[in-house]
Amino acid sequence: MTKDEDVWLRPIQPGDLPRMYEMQLDPESNRLALTFPRTREAFDAHWSRVLSNPEITARAVLVGETLLGSISCFPLDGHDHVGYWIDRMHWGQGVASRALCLLLQEVAKRPLFAAAATSNKASLRVLEKCGFVVEHVRHSPASERFAACEEALLVLR
After folding, report:
1. What b/e sequence results for 30-52 when a residue is b if at least 16 CB atoms lie within 10 Å of its CB, and e otherwise?
2. Is the pTM of this model over 0.70?
């Protein structure tokens, strides 16, 4: 268990998944992140793969006992990436920044990469506050999970 002020991380538990599913349905969160929510079946399959993969560090983000989101480090395209999802009701409170700083204390491997739509200024600020720098910007085509967008690829060395 990792703690920092009121925000703390712990391994994701099966009981967290119903709340996480509901969070990822939020239209405003999806609009900002340029994502499409997963169906229940796709969500369950995704998290089954995540939780059974020892190469992935997946953590619940909590304040007290309240689940506010998730954060993870995962292999993608030959690199280790980080990603997070915070309940919109807690945006602007420093939760994502504190959670990412805690994850970076736990995950020692470097470099780490992250991607965010260039229009998602809040997520870019979170990453930059924790030491990530934009390595390049590219066009990212649409996929089943993501809308087409201009995307920044960031790195923490």
Report:
1. eebbbbebbeeeebeeebeeeee
2. yes
